[in-house]
């Protein structure tokens, strides 16, 4: 119950993982690291560049304009509308 209250009153940390086209399996390295850390207010989205990213940005607008860096799987951490 306290976790639900914390989620309600706190800003969620959004983690967006962008993979090269057809390589979603590369996100497992990031996901395995995230599983080791307790982050109760976390929203995680994994998407591949191309059609997958285009479709998902229709509902997950914060992912718009995100790309892989140098063709490698890239994670963005977003809070209060700003992503790093």
Describe the structure.
- By secondary structure, the chain is an alpha+beta fold.
- It has one domain (18-83).
- Helices cover 26% and strands 26% of the residues.
- It has three helices and four strands, in the order αβαβαββ.
- The protein has helices spanning 2-9, 28-35, 51-56; strands at 13-19, 42-48, 74-79, 82-83.
- A four-stranded mixed beta sheet has the order 2-1-3-4.
- It is globular and about 40 Å long.
- The mean pLDDT is 89.
Return the domain count: 1
CA radius of gyration is: 13 Å
Compressed to H and E, one letter per element, the order equals HEHEHEE
Helix content: 25-40%
Number of helices: 3
Largest sheet: 4 strands, mixed
Q: Got a strand count?
A: 4
Using brief descriptors, characterize the structure shown.
84 residues; alpha+beta; 26% helix; 26% strand
Would you spell out the secondary-structure blueprint of this structure?
Blueprint: H1 2-9, E1 13-19, H2 28-35, E2 42-48, H3 51-56, E3 74-79, E4 82-83
Parallel strand pairs: 1-2
Antiparallel strand pairs: 1-3, 3-4
Summarize the structure.
The protein is α+β, with helices and mostly antiparallel strands. Helix content is 26%, strand content 26%. It starts with a helix and ends with a strand.
């Amino acid at each position: 119950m306290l976790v639900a209250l914390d989620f309600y009153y706190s800003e969620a940390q959004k983690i967006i993982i962008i993979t090269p086209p057809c390589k979603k399996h590369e996100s497992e390295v990031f996901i395995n690291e995230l599983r080791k850390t307790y982050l109760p207010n976390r929203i995680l989205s994994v998407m591949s560049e191309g059609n997958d990213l285009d479709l998902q940005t229709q509902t997950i607008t914060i992912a718009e304009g995100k790309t892989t860096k140098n063709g490698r799987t890239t994670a963005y951490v977003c809070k209060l509308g700003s992503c790093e």
